[in-house]
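Listing S7. Sequence submitted for prediction.
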Amino acid sequence: MSAVVDELASGGVRMALPLLLASSGELLSERAGVLNLSVEGMMLTGAFAGAAGAHASGSAGVGVLTALAAGLLFAALQALLSVTLRADQIVTGITANALALGATTYGSRLLFGDGSRQSALPGFDPLPVPALHAIPVLGPALFEQTVLGYAAFAITALLALTLSRRTTWGLAVDAVGEDALTADRCGLPVRPIRYAVVLLTGATSALAGAHLALSEVHAFSDNITGGIGYLAVVAVIAGRWRAWPTLLACLVFGLAQSLQFAAPALGLHLSAPLLVTLPYVFALLAVSGLVGRSRAPSALTVPFLRGG
């Protein structure tokens, strides 16, 4: 039974890592007033670009750099639409996701051909931390990650600390997300701040996609993200736009995904379709208000127009 619990915990953390990365960037963006429903598309683009870069160069490191470049380009276009042109953030996000799905599917056919014949891509293997990886339950979950996995822990912790109200950057982000006009009158650069957080979301989401392709499966498949990007947005809502509760929501979603593989060994004879949908059931409960009331940033999705 202990081995099953270890596997459930390690699988839950492993599946939560892409969520942790994507939601940490999205949390900053939403706290600054920009809703990126395009996180799914950013992740998918990052996964494809990472796989393409690794395939072309034979290096997983080059794949990560390619993924970051693609994620930043995607985010720059999103910021242009949302921040500069003040387009509807929900419409542009959904449209961007649809375009990303179509483009990566077509690109995959051109580059890899039939997915069933795709050879394994260069990727990252787990690097156990001596002694620490032997700790029951927590050891396999936290200390048997790939380089990208450890980077995910560091990035999410850093961004959570950055959002602390004790930091200048955290205060600036919150001011822009609550009342952009007042923040502008006080001298804060509203548009550059919003551009910065959207670009950061693109980078973290692209890394999340690269983690899926290069750390988890060492391959790229159509729609490899499978809705994880939407769960990242939901995690921010479930976490009430606060850093640590958002990270906790990501872990809960990851454990729910892991349960579908560990359920038989735990003696839980549940149907496979039910277990697959379990993370999304948790997501619906989270956004329904059953986990407590929350208040979104006042300027979320509100375009900034100086003097408006």
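Caption to Listing S7: primary sequence and predicted structure tokens for the chain studied. Residues 71 and 181 are 29 Å apart (CA to CA). The mean pLDDT is 86.
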